[in-house]
User: Fold this.
Amino acid sequence: MHAPMAPNGSTDILAIANNPVLWISVAGVFGVIVVQSLIFLRAVRRAAPAVEMTPEDIKTSFRSGAVSAIGPSLAVALVAIALLALFGAPAVLSRIGLIGSAAYDVSAAGIAAGTMGAKLGDSSYSQSVFAVAFFAMSIGGAMWMTATLILTPLLRRGDAKVRAINPAVMAIVPAGALIGAFACLGLTELPKSATHIAAFVASAAVMSLCLLLAKVTGKSWLREWGLGISIVAALGTAFLASGSALPL
Assistant:
């Protein structure tokens, strides 16, 4: 067996966090995601005629998705940068940067470290603790992916049965689920501070205004850019509110 790069009790986390093996593993994850994206793109082009989507509609939908992803991606990037010192670039890229949740991964790593009597970021955070924490983060993500792999075909069969009975239901239920999910995520932030309330109200107002203007003027780009614009407005409002006399 090869000797470890440093003693297991060492607190030099980056010595193993940036191990070439981990970089190779991350490259594999990126490769899978690229292949999946190409498969989805090909599937969309094949299915488009059946739902009367033109090539221009496809371009518009992809452009809307890309624009809408800018705001959330910036937030993820900021969180990832903050966690580089704790987990190293490969771990952050493979978990938080691609398929993970910052809240879950940090919580899982913290709990795993706690079981070893350690705490993330302090003198007790050794290479052994990092290994256990990274494993906890990864195994949780793997279970989500496995559950998706198993449940997706089952849900697809249920979707087909519901559509056969009442196609309108499957048009309403997904929209209602999305509205409920985003409303839940937003409303849980409101009790935290007046700054959170101000950001929430500003983003909702700007998004509503963008949708209204898009409908009145017929400018579809306002719908595509609406999410990004509302996120920027919320960030600006939060910055101004946090520096004002509003109680935190």
User: Anything to note?
Assistant: Residues 167-248 form one domain. The first helix runs from residue 14 to 17.
